[in-house]
Give the backbone structure.
Amino acid sequence: MFGPMPTSFFLTSGSGEASMELNAFDAALLDAGVGDTNLIKMSSILPPGAKEIERIVLRKGSFVPLAYGDRASSMPGIQISAAVAVGIPADPLEAGLIMEFSHEGSPDSCERIARSMVEEGMEVIRKRKLREIKSISATLKVSRVGAVFAAVVLCP
């Protein structure tokens, strides 16, 4: 194991526009409050017993583990959305599950699909009862080049 086991998490999302997709993605990260950090994209497991906290200000330059969904587009007029959902197990000694999804379409359907993926991953595949599912999404109607981002950020 590298570093301390995360004990808390928060959900965040953002959107942004710029002249290029990578710049739009950077703007979405800034909007979500993670733009001045080094993101460590992880697979989608919530550590046992992790508790949800309010979004915190992250130290600039810090290494931040997170699971995220994103989408970028340069097609003016389309709606893009990204969502994450986290399944909290009924048994606090079990690991939870995070699922990400993005598409061209509404944030409601995007979030609904991410939540459905959590239900299947926990209850069907892992055979674990869910206590609850938390989710967040971001959406944007593209004007020039846009990006959306939704994440579950893990904290020590």
Summary: The chain has a mean pLDDT of 96.
